[in-house]
Amino acid sequence: MKRKIYLSLAVACSMTAVAPSFADPITDNETVRTYFADVFPELAIEDYVDGVYAIDQNLRDQWLQIEEFPPYEDAVDEGKVLFDTPFANGKSYANCFDNEGVGIKQNFPYFDMEKNKVVTLELAINECRTHNGEQPLDYGKGAIAYISSYMASTSSGELINVTVPDNAAAQAAYEDGKEFFYSRRGQLNMACATCHMASAGKRLRADILSPALGQVSHFPAFRSKWDDVGTIQRRYAGCNTQIRSKPFKLQSEQYRNLEYFHTYMSNGLPINGPGTRK
Amino acid sequence: MTKINKLRLVLLLTVPVVLSACSDNDDAAKAVNSTMEQEQAHSKAVNQEAKQTTSKEVHLQDLMHHVAQAKRHAEMHGFVWSTTDALVEKGYTEASKGNEKVAKTIFQEAKLQFELSMEQAKYAAQHWQLLVPEDD
Question: Angle, to 10 degrees, between the axis of helix A168-182 and the axis of helix A25-39?
Fold first, then answer.
């Protein structure tokens, strides 16, 4: 009997020793939601897809007026034309994606076990092109953002469903994205979390900082500052520049992993992109 | 084997493993620490060398070399500041115009910024969890 106790003790101690020091993704999400529920007790979970427009009524009224004639509509139309235009080999984007590319945005990004990396929608669009003998598109804005906007529009209302499989590399990618999100960087020594967790809802000069939860739901987004639609990674690069950190290349491993973590955070929230932002 | 010996054996096997878990088990932090320690040692040597030269004259070429090294290290950690590359570029421009004194001042600032960004990388690797909200 005592031998069994000793062995159990030894096994338990060994397991404690090798257990990771970080929380699992599901616990992370619960923690984030609990945190925001304390900060914004008046908001329902689905309200977060509206970003700052769920927090400030004056801004919300202006935003709703803009949404009456959505500035991203041309991008969605242009994206559909591009999406439907066959490649030189006669194939099209529809041949590269599940369900012919319709209503699938909520499943991106995902961890590809064969490629051993996080695949975002924009990366998949370009991989589809190169696989069919076409030149890849520039990331961030222009045609790729239009195609992505169209694909997002076909997922409207679908719930974000990003998974972190029980795989060491996938979990490492998630954890890497999490570390990026919470790491202070740049000359201003700020992390994504500094603005979008700790200071969410507070003013930064004339702007109100949006909560991280729900941010990905409306991308690609038409930003007044850009006067065009852009991808979430274009926004990451912009945020990094604002805190005086040298931005990474769009679709770099760092930004893909960040997008993986950032999107997982919003699991269960509906896709409402493309959206409009300042 | 007596009961006490059995207990000793179990403790002997488990204690080192448990202790290893109690130590800083963040591999990334360790890796950065290790690299940073090497870099700091290197940096000290470079600074020592620079100080010796400064008393007389810092050679612009040496400074440019040190900046290039610091840049490589900082980029490796992914914490380069957006302000620094512009400084380096400006330094090269001034150097090409023959404004050696101005170029040196700019390169010194660039080198300092690279070093600070590496310190930031080290801090982030060890302390990023501080910003993660905790469950009550």
Answer: 30
Asked if A245 is an interface residue toward chain B (Cβ–Cβ < 8 A), one would say yes
- Residue-level pLDDT at B63: 94
Per-residue pLDDT at A1 exceeds 60: no
Q: Which chain A residues have a beta carbon less than 8 Å from that of B20?
A: 17
Q: Can you give the pLDDT at residue B134? A: 85
- The CATH class given to the A69-192+219-278 domain equals mainly alpha
**Chain A residue nearest residue B82, CA to CA:** A246
Chain A, nearest residue to B76 by Cα: A248
The reply to whether B7 touches chain A by the CB within 8 Å rule is yes
Sign of torsion over alpha carbons B36, B37, B42, B45: positive
pLDDT at A111: 98
A104 or B51: which carries more pLDDT confidence? A104
Return the pLDDT at A23. Answer: 77
| Structure confidence at residue B21 (pLDDT) | 42
Please give the positions of A annotated as active site: 239
Q: Residue B4's pLDDT is what?
A: 52
pLDDT-derived band at A14, boundaries 50, 70, 90: very low
CB-CB under 8 Å, A6 with B21: no
* B6 contact A CB<8A: yes
B135 touches chain A (CB under 8 A): yes
Residue-range domain boundaries for chain B: 26-128
Of the candidates B64, B105, B110, B108, the one whose C-alpha atom is nearest the C-alpha of residue B84 is B110
**The token pair that represents B17 in the structure block:** 């493993």
Q: Exposed, middle or buried by CB within 10 Å (0-12, 13-18, 19+), for A157?
A: exposed
